[in-house]
Amino acid sequence: MTFAKLVRYFEQIQATSKRLEMAVILGELFGALDAPKEIALVVYLCQGQLRPAFENPEFGMSEKLLQKALVSATGSTEQDVAAAFRASGDYGSVVEQLGRPQRGTAAVQTVYARLADIAAESGGGSVVRKVTLLADLLGCVSPGEAKYIVRIVLGRLRLGVGDPTVLDGLANAFGVDKTERIYLDHAYNRCCDLGLVAQTLAIHGLARIKEFEVVVGCPIRPALAARLSSPEEIMEKIGPCAVEEKYDGFRAQVHKDGSTVKIFSRNLENISAMFPEIVAGTLRQVTAQRAIYEGEAMAYDARTRRYLPFQITVQRKRKHDIAAMQREVPLRIFVFDVLYAEEDLTGLSFRERRRRMNTLFKTSADGVLQISPVREVETAKELNEIFEEAVASGREGIVAKRWDARYQAGGRNFNWIKLKRSYAALLSDTIDAVIIGYYHGKGIRASLGMGSLLVAVYDHREERFKTVAKVGSGWSDEELIRLKEMLEKIRLPASPPGVDSLLEPDEWVEPKYVIEIQADEITKSPVHTCGKSSPQEPGFALRFPRSVHFVRRDKSPRDATTVEEIIHLYSLQGRRG
After folding, report:
1. Are strands 331-341 and 369-371 parallel, antiparallel or unpaired?
2. How sure is the predictor about 453, in pLDDT bands with cuts at 50, 70 and 90?
3. Domains observed in the chain
4. Eight-class DSSP state of 373
């Protein structure tokens, strides 16, 4: 397929906001490819990437470097490029406007290879080489093609296509009916690589998808816990169960493949380089050659033998001064599940996975890897005692787990149920919300450039973000300045694709950053779209929301609290009232 033909499909997708229409267009695109080996590349490009998110290379090109490439490719002056950008706010539109007429004949694979070459450039002189390579590529494609190449390089393709929509497109292209569509979800949740799923389906068919197993080195989408408000509700829901303390650290999924260890965060970011002690501990303490385990990492004070608060633990998530921080804030990781040990274990019960866990690790009192203690309970009274012990010892609460449950990658259900310590407010849990815009503010806040944030939760069914609150408190002035700088880099001229909002902030931003919010309660609201089923019906909103932490780097926008969870929390709140 030529890249020009791919761009025509991009234009069709961008022209609609309807998920079903996008899936139909994607189905036609995937079905029109000339060879099965093209499909992985096309899937990545539809996401504005070269590889799956957990290993996607960065192009390393600032807007200043891009401007130089545009000047070279179009023969325009720097002043022409700057003026065109001021008018449109989009460098893709700039190159489309200023580009030289060309006939689009380059193949998708050729464009992809050249983009990969740009991303791979490093070392001395790489900046000049990147600019030259991009200018050469833009100079040999049509202005319409150049528009999308520039957006991909800047990470701003923004077709509004979510992962489930891509999977629907694959189902349309390869005749997977609604009853078997779930197998595509299962395969994707086991590898987090849409290109791999697409290529497997295109070459081997649905039969191989049904047998899809986890891949060491590809992160598994984490299983998530549902919420309930009391031990009695938990016992009523799942009966006798396993109970573990809920640690106030950050979740890590660790993959060992011989002497190679990769660590992935909850939002599937490769964070291996940040935590050398977890890498070393895995090589030392995991007996299997190939294994995947999950745990909660926490800062540990060896002198006092105490685990430290999350605010200290999170300081370890950095790309610089790693050795110094390792000495200052050493980590331990509490292992709570094993997903692979020479074979895929996700289909086994939790009880069997715990049994395998006990034979997989060499444990010691001073080991970096510690197995999370688990207790079996049969009554609400026993569960409540464990919960109170956990809270008294400084833990967030507890997680109850069904002994017979398989590991459901990417699922939030009642196989795992969390119970957290209550706050004085009616709303007893925090909300993870996505920033979609901000207001300039008044008074002192105006001098900082930002007053409050417009935030949203995620609707999985519609693949859209729905507004739930305006948040204006919980940060220091220094944090607000830092947050403003972060948001300016992802500012948009109009409402982002995939966002439903009745409110108009002063500035729209790409849905990228997740913040943790505490509120007094959830109320009905005519101005927010969370849970709003019709123009006449109210939605849901957070009353007196305030930020609890700065920005949650461990969560992606689609890992935020869902509309369904807000509605569920509203019903729980009513029971307490």
Report:
1. parallel
2. very high
3. 3-154 (1.10.3260.10), 224-420 (3.30.470.30), 431-576 (2.40.50.140)
4. P
